[in-house]
Amino acid sequence: MACPESSATSQAPGAHSAKPEWFRAMSRYELPSLRRALWQMLDTFVPYLALWAVMVLLIRRGAPYGIVLLLSLVAAGLQVRIFIMFHDCCHGSFFRSRRANSFLGTVAGVLTFTPFKDWRLAHNVHHATAGDLDRRGVGDVTTMTVEEYRAAPLLRRMRYRAYRHPLIMFVLGPVWVFLISFRFFPKGAKRPERTSVLLTDLLLVAIAGAASWTIGLRTYLLIQMPILLMGGAGGIWLFYVQHQFEKDYWARHEAWDPLRAALQGSSFYKLPKVLQWFSGNIGLHHVHHIRPRIPNYNLQRCLDAFPVLQSVEPMTLWRSLKSLRLHLWDEASQRMVGFRDLKRCPPLQLGAGG
Q1: What's the N-to-C CA distance of the chain in angstroms?
Q2: What confidence score (pLDDT) does residue 349 get?
Q3: Strands of the chain, DSSP E
Q4: Which among 101, 304, 327, 329 has the fewest CB atoms less than 10 Å away?
Q5: Segment 153-207, tens digit of pLDDT
Q6: CA 261, CA 289: separation in Å to the nearest integer?
Q7: CB neighbours of 138 closer than 8 A, spacing ≥ 6?
Q8: 103 contacts: CB under 8 Å, gap ≥ 6
Q9: Whose CA is closest to 246, among 339, 322, 151?
Q10: How far apart are CA 98 and CA 115, in angstroms?
């Protein structure tokens, strides 16, 4: 892919878009539905627990482990769906009740090895800063600009290349994120976040202990680890393609427009219906970023109601694979480019890129 010529998409400093009428009209989809929420819990948690029971029986009876792995793949898809409920609870959108959101978020967080309040804080920062080049680094996929990469020392460039490699990102990434990183609270974390991390860790230890006493630690690990690693890889992939595509949106803070960042900098990931179900509609990410308090079960209805949301160019499953070749934001052309494109990207001119 050649480095494109500088585009006309940059904004004048401070030129934030006024909220249009359709933005205000979207608010009616923010109202949670107890019926939809309970049904989603039923159609997700029941089959997830049933699969666990079947896999335990298969292992105890000496069935081929390949069958267990196939079932764990389905369970991993359900774990992704559970994480979307967890995500909605972090936004306070799954239920009307704050207490209900907190309770389900904590439970779903334990099932996905993710501390509720700690992740909620980082994710809210992500929503407040997505697409802002001057406020990167919390709750996002680390992204360097072309000029930053060119100016970086060799060791930092090597670390960045390793971080962006698919093997590191999607194979080792789930191990680091869900098994290691989330077990510790970040430096400077406040009491609610620290408590959330410690509570999640204690509950995970308790579950592992109970499993050792009942089904056996080996059986627990043979089931839990594939589910967690495959589900984690799927979750990281979804998060990656939501904000890593060629015609993405990034701007310096003085020109950053939150509505444009949501509409243009969040993908419309048009998945096959079965994958859209397992991923809890989170592929409609531009809708979610415009109105984060819309619960996942209302996202499709909201998309269908507003032509402006449907006008965003969709990303298909096949096309999304191309995002693996994109690693850097080029402020001159206002596009994501790959390492191979560096020689074709001219130096950033003073004032370019917003």
Answers
A1: 23
A2: 63
A3: 144-145, 268-270, 314-316, 328-330, 335-337
A4: 304
A5: 999 999 999 999 999 999 999 999 999 999 999 888 999 999 999 999 999 999 9
A6: 8
A7: 122, 125, 126, 129
A8: none
A9: 322
A10: 17
Q: How far apart are CA 115 and CA 327, in angstroms?
A: 29
Q: Rounded to whole angstroms, how far apart are CA atoms 338 and 320?
A: 14
pTM confidence score:
0.91
The mean pLDDT value for 291-312 works out to 97
Structure tokens at 99: 């207490």
| C-alpha to C-alpha distance for 352 and 143, rounded to whole angstroms | 18
* 108 vs 106: CA distance, rounded Å: 6
Residues, the chain: 354
What residue type is assigned to position 196 of the chain?
Answer: S
CA atoms of 350 and 336, how far apart (whole Å): 19
Strands 335-337 and 314-316: unpaired
Confidence band for 19, pLDDT divided at 50, 70 and 90: confident
Rg (CA), the chain: 21
CB 123 within 8 A of CB 289: no
| Residue 333 near residue 320 (C-beta atoms within 8 A) | no
**What percentage of the chain's residues is helix, strand, coil (to nearest 5)?**
65, 5, 30
Write the single-letter amino acid at 307: P
- Between CA 36 and CA 230 the distance in angstroms is 27
Long-range contacts of 186-193 (CB under 8 A, 24+ apart): 186/118, 189/118, 192/117, 193/115, 193/117, 193/118, 193/121
> How far is it, in rounded angstroms, from Cα 258 to Cα 262?
6
